[in-house]
Each structure stands twice: as structure tokens, then as C-alpha cells.
Amino acid sequence: MSSTDNADREPVLSARGLVKTFGRVVGLDGVDVDLYPGEVLAVIGDNGAGKSTLIKCLTGALVPDAGELFVDGRPVHFKRPQDARDAGIETVYQTLAVAPALDVASNLYLGRERRRPGFLGTVLRMLDKKGMRRDAAAAMAELGIGTLQNMAQPVETLSGGQRQAVAVARAAAFGSRIIVLDEPTAALGVKESTQVLKLIQEVRSRGLPVILISHNMPHVFEVADRIHIQRLGRCAGIVTPSSHTMSEAVAIMTGATTLSDAQGLSTG
Questions:
Q1: Are 97 and 108 in contact (CB under 8 A)?
Q2: Does the pLDDT of residue 253 top 80, yes or no?
Q3: Which of 32-41, 60-69, 204-213, 253-262 has the weakest average pLDDT?
């Protein structure tokens, strides 16, 4: 997906001039972001670069001190994570936030449990466990997750990759507009990481844009369409896997070179 392709399209999510300070510490210093339909936008940066602060401002976990947010071109003001969810933005944090003692289906519908129809649901407040398990299985199948067949299986019995799949499937099922993934492969082995990367590509193929925060450069360059580089609270540049090498992206991220210098090397 090239920048010329994006020129003719309206971003699903935009941020302009985001500023966030913590006392004398500047977390964000006038950051702009654009996320387009059906793309994976990776956000990379060294520790303290402002990645987490940026994502929290985009998803309602933090309120920026200045700047504007737009969803589908309309201004929004997120004061809490639920506001972002209501706008169709689902976030999977590094800690996953799954309930280990509950089964797969219950985790998928965590906070959105469905009750049984009629008297059993309205008066006795019984949950529609059968229906939730059926629809959870359909959601998993739609995302190509074949390693999870039993929706009644407790999440605590799953591998790390399977737990991540449950969290991503939950976001894909209810994130009507945007999915944000915070270090989804950080604690996973090679095989499980590969499964999660395939899942990200499957989500993108369904037209859902994804924001991916990751320290893993090979993973970023494998799935990202564009790469937003954070450095010292600012955006140091936007690159693509086709325009810049992994080494150049890391050099921009660490301050060893600038975006314009890296472009000169790429075209020279």
C-alpha cells in the first residue's frame, strides 16, 4: 500500500498535534497519525519514545493535553477506554486481560455476555452459553484459528499463542472499525508468533485496519504496510518495508540518522 494510494482515501483514524506531558516529562510533542482502511500501521520506538503514551491517547486510556482526534473524519473526544470501544476501537494490551478461569467463549464475550431469550434471560438472568459458544466457534473459524476447537475449554489450559488468539479474536469480533495490538508476540515462541502474525494478516484481509506496537523488527517488516517511528515524544518519520531497510528504520529510531538522510542512502 503506497502513499499515493492513501492520498485518495480518508483515514479511518487521525490524530493531529497530540501533546501529553507528565509534569516536566514530555510524553508526546505534537504527534500526527493517520490510519487508513485495510492497513497495518506499525508503531516502533525505543523505550521512552512515546509509543505507549500515543496508543493510550488514541484509545481513551489517557486524555491528551492538546491536539485533535478524528474517526472517519469526525472529531471525537475520548475520556475513557469505553468511549474508544463505543467508536469501534478495540485494544489488546500486552497483559492480554483474559480471564484464565473462564472458558474461551466466556472470554470472547467478556463484558458483553448475552442472556437467553424470553423468561429465562429477562427474569432468571440466565446466560446464553450455548449460543455464545456457537458464535465464538464461528468467529474463530472466520479468522482461520484452527488450533482452538473446544469453546468450553478454560483459557488457563491454553498456550500463550492460543491465549493471544482469543484476545485478538475478541477484538476482531467487536472492533467494528480499528484494532490496536500492543506487543502481541512479545512473550511467544517462534511457532506461536507465526500464528499471531498470520492472524494479523487475516484481520487486515477482512478490511479491518490494525495498529501494531512492537519491538520485534522482523515481525514489523513482515506484516506492516507503513511504519510510524517514534523518537523522544515526536514522530521521527513514516517509512515502509519497501522504502527502507530494517537497519535504516532502527537508525532513525535511535537517532543515528534522520529520515531524510536514510532516504538519501536508499536512493543513492
A1: no
A2: yes
A3: 253-262
Report how far residue 52's alpha carbon sits from residue 37's, in angstroms, rounded to the nearest whole number.
22
Q: How large a percentage of the chain has pLDDT more than 90?
A: 49
DSSP string for 27-79: EEEEEEEEE-TT-EEEEEE-TTSSHHHHHHHHTTSS--SEEEEEETTEEE--S
Instruction: Kindly write down the DSSP assignment for every residue of 176-216, as one continuous string.
Output: SSEEEEESTTTT--HHHHHHHHHHHHHHHHTT--EEEE-S-
How many other C-beta atoms lie within 10 A of the C-beta of residue 100? 12
Question: C-alpha grid cell for residue 32?
Answer: 500526527
Nearest to 173 by CA among 223, 131, 135: 135
DSSP code for 107 = H
User: Residue 183 above 50 pLDDT?
Assistant: yes
The helix or strand, by DSSP H or E, that contains position 116, with its residue range, turns out to be none
Per the structure block, which three cell numbers stand in for 82?
A: 469505553
- Cα distance between residue 224 and residue 229, in whole Å: 12
Q: Give how far the C-alpha of residue 196 lies from the chain's centroid of Cα atoms, to the nearest Å.
A: 12
How large is the C-alpha radius of gyration of the chain? Answer: 20
pLDDT in tens, 148-174: 778 888 999 988 778 888 888 888 877
Angle between helices 190-205 and 160-174 (to 10 degrees): 10
Q: Phi then psi for 14, rounded to 5 degrees?
A: -135, 145
Between CA 23 and CA 104 the distance in angstroms is: 42
Distance separating alpha carbons of residues 99 and 85, to the nearest angstrom: 19
Torsion of CA 32, 63, 204, 129, to 10 degrees: 180
pTM of the model: 0.84
